[in-house]
């Protein structure tokens, strides 16, 4: 018999998900967490406005797959943050969603058990619980805004968001970011050029109207006022870095020509370290040199860091996973992270 359907031809199932309101009812913010997030977002905005002269360092695992290890890392970061607070403002990377060039593990929210079971509702619960625990430590938290639906579930706990190189050109992500309640960093395109990210910055600062969901999960028209705290994140491209002094100057000129505030964050990973994590401290060292030489456009760094160095494939039995080792991009270990940030703090304080 001929299938005469006109829709859902390639859909095998549709499952109704918990609403954002219900998830927040089950896992609510405490008064102290609310105050912490408000304070942390204010500091981020002050750094971008140059009212706070510290460097913002977004540091942590490439992706989160083990909440216990993430708490362990967060406690270490909290202690280090106090030690370097005079010159550096540490923000923990808590990335739950991973863009894939082809196929692969899509992150803790999509597949919390790492076995292609895709228990997304469970993943949302785990992610929100972890954010609450980390926010309870007083840590400012960062994530990549990848899925346009998930911010309704989690963004109330986020102090800084990133839009990745593959999605900076996406209109969906630009208009979504115009409504986010925190500052947003847009990475330059994978070819290393600035144009795509600068166009995104011009777009995100304006009001938009788009389709989304409300707190009760209803499809809705979302109207935004525009986000004035978008900025560029340089991550290199085409196997070439773009954190050097000449590249920074070209970026400053391109931002000025576009009428965009010259706020530049440098991603020490990806092509800026030629995808060799051990080179990240060298990038941080060069950026520190530029700051001491008088650069005023650089406002921070991103660093991919974990408890232990390197990365690992996801085994058939997840009990065999090595503790504190990334399952996505390779990271530097905690000792290297601590040493690099303490050195940066020491030099900036003395400078």
Description:
This protein is of the alpha/beta class and 351 residues long. The chain has a single domain, classed as Aldolase class I (TIM Barrel, Alpha-Beta Barrel), CATH 3.20.20.70. The chain is 35% helix and 15% strand. It has ten helices and ten strands. The strands form two sheets. The protein has an eight-stranded parallel barrel with strand order 1-2-3-4-5-8-9-10, surrounded by seven helices. β3, α5 and β4 form a beta-alpha-beta unit. α6 crosses α7. The longest helix has 18 residues. The N and C termini lie far apart (78 Å).
List keywords for this structure.
TIM Barrel, alpha/beta, eight-stranded parallel beta barrel, 10 helices, 351 residues, globular
- The name of the CATH topology is TIM Barrel
Rg over CA atoms, rounded to whole Å, is: 20 Å
Low-confidence stretches: none
Per DSSP, what share of the residues sits in E-state strands of 2 or more residues? 5-15%
Report the count of strand segments: 10
Q: How many angstroms does the end-to-end distance come to?
A: 78 Å
Name the CATH superfamily classification: Aldolase class I
Structural class: alpha/beta
As laid out across the biggest beta sheet, the strand order is: 1-2-3-4-5-8-9-10
The total tally of domains equals 1
Main sheet: strands, sense, barrel: 8 strands, parallel, barrel
Average pLDDT, all residues: 96
Highest-level CATH class: Alpha Beta
Give the topology string: H per helix, E per strand. Answer: HHEHEHEHEHEHEEEHEHEH
- The 3D shape can be described as globular
What CATH architecture would you give?
Answer: Alpha-Beta Barrel
- Helical content stands at 25-40%
The helix tally amounts to 10
């Amino acid at each position: 018999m001929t299938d005469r359907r006109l829709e859902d031809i390639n859909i095998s199932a549709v499952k109704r998900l918990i609403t954002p309101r219900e998830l927040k009812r089950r896992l609510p913010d405490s008064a102290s967490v609310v105050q912490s997030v408000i304070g942390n977002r204010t500091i981020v905005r002050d750094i971008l406005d140059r009212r706070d002269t510290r460097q913002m360092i977004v540091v942590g695992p490439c992706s989160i797959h083990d909440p216990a290890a993430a708490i362990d890392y967060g406690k270490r970061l909290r202690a280090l943050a106090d030690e370097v607070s005079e010159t550096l403002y540490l923000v923990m990377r808590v990335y739950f969603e991973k863009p894939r060039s082809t196929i692969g593990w899509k992150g803790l929210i999509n597949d919390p058990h790492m076995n292609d079971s895709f228990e997304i509702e469970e993943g949302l619960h785990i992610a929100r619980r972890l954010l609450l625990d980390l926010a309870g430590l007083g840590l400012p938290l960062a994530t990549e805004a990848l899925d346009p639906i998930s911010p309704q579930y989690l963004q109330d706990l986020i102090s800084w968001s990133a839009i990745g190189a593959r999605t900076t050109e996406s209109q969906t992500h630009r208009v979504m970011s115009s409504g986010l309640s925190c500052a947003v960093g847009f990475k330059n395109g994978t070819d290393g050029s600035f144009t795509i990210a600068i166009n995104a910055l011009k777009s995100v600062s304006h009001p938009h109207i788009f389709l989304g969901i409300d707190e009760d999960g209803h499809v809705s028209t979302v109207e935004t006022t525009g986000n004035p705290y978008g900025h560029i994140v340089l991550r290199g491209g085409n196997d070439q870095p773009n954190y050097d002094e000449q590249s920074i100057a070209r970026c400053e000129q391109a931002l000025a020509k576009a009428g965009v505030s010259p706020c530049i964050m440098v991603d020490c990973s990806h092509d800026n370290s030629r995808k060799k994590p051990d080179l990240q401290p060298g990038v941080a060292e060069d950026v520190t040199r530029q700051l001491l030489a008088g650069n005023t456009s650089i406002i921070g760094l991103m660093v991919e860091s974990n408890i232990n160095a390197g990365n690992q494939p996801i085994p058939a039995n997840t009990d065999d996973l090595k503790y504190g080792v990334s399952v996505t991009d390779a990271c530097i270990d905690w000792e290297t992270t601590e040493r690099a940030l303490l050195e940066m703090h020491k030099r900036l304080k003395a400078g």
